[in-house]
Design a protein that fits this description.
By secondary structure, the protein is α+β, with helices and mostly antiparallel strands. It is built from 24 helices and 21 strands. It has four domains: 202 residues, no CATH class; 138 residues, no CATH class; 203 residues, no CATH class; 161 residues, no CATH class. Keywords: Cell membrane, Membrane, Transmembrane, Transmembrane helix. It comes from Plantactinospora endophytica.
Length: 764
């Protein structure tokens, strides 16, 4: 064992430091990508599950009248419940825009199930009016801090409150994905905000209340929601699994994308490490022969070389694990506003897994070339001659026909002399090209979803909420609003099919104005018809043309599915039907579309001017901040794979140049100039880059469509929404990759090209 360790240490202290550093570098970069990807995929769900546990496991939220909730509270499915919580509906002004708000007084005493979690500041002081704890996600997005004043409107009556803290509430997902935002005040303040009866002012429904409960069996949340949702007086039921899915929708998109990129990182790491290890062993053939000449056995030589590679890999894995662990908290998408940036998580298992992965690849890649090097006759290797290798005769004849200059001919011949090493190097670079194509394609797809909100199930520009306003008066005003191209109404109901619940939506107004992106079948037109999100079809195994019998709240419905459309809310598990199926029920909101030149902000302003202050209006949120984080992270990972592969290309070219140093010295003595020496190395690098681009480009496009369809299906939008990268980018990929290879070749041969020919011909 001591002889093997001495052999490994000798190799690490030897002269091949450039290739040793390259081995450490690629191992570190590959480990960084793997560790960061795995951490990001797990940190969002873990953080949400932690606050769910801290909040007392709020498995079910039931909305309705206090009397109905008092009966629901006695249901044996509950292990524990919070007190029934009355609330007021209102609006709060954020960045000049009114946003729907729900105002309640948190229960005091022993922390009940579903109690909001204070993230900063303090709870409102008892008996002190005018204080509020603000929704953490909305506060972060609007830049609201403790001590700021916010303006509320309840039933048309304005009020100004002072923010004394922020909190996270799990009765629904976080703003802006879900509203209303949740505000918490002292009971005295709640009484002050409620308009007194008999004043002639719009009075909110003070009988509105909610109940949060923890179930005996959390796995039965959906079934219990279906059973409780049909009770009289129950207006809605929200099970925790649905809320959790809504909270993690952005992390689901990002996590799925990272999982796809993990494939490229692993492939790049495998090719890179294998190619680098092979190159190092070929460059040390003479050193291996000298070791055998002084008494080392073949087994000792092979074991020592593998141990040396593993030591290099261990250094790279440790550095990459630290870098990936530090990077992961900065890659979170969608949850930062509500739960904050996740804490640094030290995961020894990811270190162990990365070490096993890289170690296996290193050992596998080192054993075969080490065995081949150790089996070579010592006398042949010690003749002070470089290893032989010839290009295939067909290739030689082809080069003769091309009549290339000696520098270009020699550069291509050097690549073809070592087909195995060249194939590994080109394969790693091809993986990088494919990763870049996938990364750019994902970014383009997300940009298109933001630019065309119908792809995400939001084909509108402004939302109008009018509690107590006459629908006929409101719709007439909508039709006459300047800049409004059309509108439709919306009424949400928790709906059951069998013993499972999902969200259904009654659509009113002009069907043509509800411009949902119908992917198969036709749009919704008449009562008795329905269109479904792709996620709903997958969940229940339905198809276009099927007839389903469901219960929307307390109302039984028989619907024929005439089409499916793109929808990301509730992962696409939504069923839409005409509002005529629920006669006499007022819509929850009116969704208005702007004209071709309008924007959500200008349309919202025109609607406020038209409808007056008693009607809440807010523009559709596009959430560019999270998209920016998503784009940066995806590009960072693509760049990571590209850097790994380019580092491998440079290392392979450098090793090849050192291996051919004696031949280069001979060429220099017969007239090769420094420029020609650089040209031959650049030619070899360009050839590898060209081959990698020609292979990686179609593979990347295929992988992009497959992975994008998987992601879009996972979030409910359905397959077929991939937005291919720009044609100019695809067209420039091949020459750009060839140029990168040429530059790597120049850098690899730069030092040798200026080394005196007498030093090169010594072959040491």
């Amino acid at each position: 064992m001591s002889a093997i360790l001495r052999l490994a240490r000798s190799g690490l202290r030897g002269g091949n430091r450039a290739t040793a550093i390259a081995t450490v570098l690629v191992a570190a970069l590959a480990t960084t990508g793997v560790v960061a990807g795995l951490s990001v995929q797990g940190q969002g769900g873990a953080e949400v599950d932690r606050i769910y546990s801290d909040a007392g496991r709020p498995d079910l939220v039931v909305y309705g009248t206090p009397e109905a909730l008092a009966e629901v509270r006695q249901d044996p499915a509950f292990a524990a419940t919070a007190p029934i919580t009355p609330y007021l509906a209102g609006a709060v002004t954020l960045d000049g825009e009114p946003v729907d708000a729900r105002i309640a007084a948190p229960s005091t005493g022993t922390p009940p199930v579903g109690r909001p979690l204070l993230r900063s500041g303090v709870w409102p002081a008892a008996g002190v009016p005018g204080e509020v704890v603000f929704d953490q996600a909305a506060a972060t997005r609007a830049g609201i801090r403790t001590g700021d004043q916010v303006r509320l409107t309840v039933g048309g009556r304005p009020a100004t409150l002072t923010v004394v803290g922020t909190a996270v509430d799990l009765t629904d997902c976080f703003y802006p994905d879900c509203d209303p935002i949740r505000l918490f005040v002292d009971p005295a303040t709640l009484d002050t905000l409620a308009p007194p009866a008999g004043t002639g002012e719009p009075v909110p429904d003070t009988r509105a209340a909610l109940l949060v409960g923890r179930l005996v069996d959390p796995g039965q949340a959906d079934a219990v929601a279906a059973r409780l949702g049909i009770r009289a007086g129950v207006e809605g039921v929200q099970p925790w699994p649905d809320t959790r899915d809504d909270i993690l929708i952005r992390d689901r998109i990002f996590g799925a994308s990272l999982a796809g990129f993990g494939i490229f990182v692993l492939l790049a790491a495998a090719f890179v490490v294998a190619g680098t290890a092979t190159a190092r062993l070929l460059a040390r053939r003479r050193e291996v022969a000298l070791l055998q000449a002084v008494g080392y056995t073949t087994r000792q030589v092979i074991t020592g070389l593998v141990a040396e590679a593993l030591l290099l890999g261990a250094a790279g894995v440790l550095a990459g694990w630290v870098a990936g662990t530090l990077l992961a908290p900065f890659l979170q998408v969608g949850l930062g506003g509500a739960v904050g940036r996740p804490e640094l998580r030290i995961a020894p298992l990811s270190l162990l897994g990365s070490a096993l992965l890289v170690g296996t690849v290193l050992a596998t890649a080192t054993v075969l070339p080490a065995w081949q090097a150790a089996r070579q006759p010592v006398s042949d290797v010690l003749r002070n001659a470089p290893p032989r290798g010839t290009a295939p005769a067909r290739v030689t004849r082809l080069l003769d026909r091309l009549r290339l200059g000696p520098a270009y001919r020699y550069g291509l011949g050097a690549v073809l002399t070592r087909p195995g090493r060249s194939a590994l190097t080109a394969a790693a670079l091809a993986v990088a090209v494919a990763a870049v194509v996938v990364g750019v394609g994902f970014t383009a797809t997300m940009d298109r979803m933001i630019a065309e909100p119908g792809r995400a199930g939001d084909p509108y520009d402004a939302v109008v909420v009018a509690d107590g306003t006459d629908p006929a008066t409101l719709t007439a005003a909508l039709a006459g609003t300047p800049g409004a191209a059309g509108w439709y109404s919306q009424l949400d109901r928790r709906t059951t099919l069998g013993d499972q619940t999902f969200l259904s939506r009654a659509i009113g107004g002009d069907p043509a104005a509800a411009r949902f992106l119908v992917r198969e079948g036709r749009p919704l037109r008449a009562p008795g018809e329905a269109i479904a999100g792709y996620g709903l079809l997958r969940r229940f195994g339905l198809q276009v043309g099927d007839t389903v019998e469901v219960r929307a709240g307390e109302t039984p419905l028989t619907l024929t599915i005439v089409g499916w459309y793109s929808e990301t809310e509730d992962t696409g598990e939504i069923l839409m039907y005409r509002a005529e199926m629920l006669p006499g029920v007022a819509p929850d909101a009116y969704l208005v579309s702007a004209g071709p030149t309008g924007t959500p902000e200008t349309l919202a302003g025109a609607l406020r001017d038209r409808l007056g202050p008693e009607v809440a209006v807010h523009a559709r949120e596009s959430d560019p901040a999270d998209l920016g984080m998503f784009t940066v992270a995806m590009r960072l990972l693509a760049a990571l794979v590209l850097v790994v592969s380019l580092a491998n290309l440079a290392a392979a070219l450098l090793t090849g140049a050192r291996e051919r140093s004696r031949t280069l010295g001979v060429l220099r003595t017969v007239g090769f100039t420094v420029r020609q020496t650089l040209a031959q190395s650049a030619t070899g690098g360009a050839a590898l880059g060209l081959a990698a681009a020609l292979v990686g480009l179609p593979i990347g496009l295929l992988a992009f469509h497959l992975l994008t369809d998987q992601v879009m299906t996972g979030i409910g939008a359905g397959p077929g929404l991939a937005e291919a990268p720009a044609g100019a980018l695809l067209a420039g990929t091949v020459p750009a990759t060839a140029l990168a290879g040429a530059l790597a070749g120049v850098l690899a041969a730069h030092r040798l090209a200026r080394t005196p020919a007498t030093d090169l011909v010594r072959y040491e």
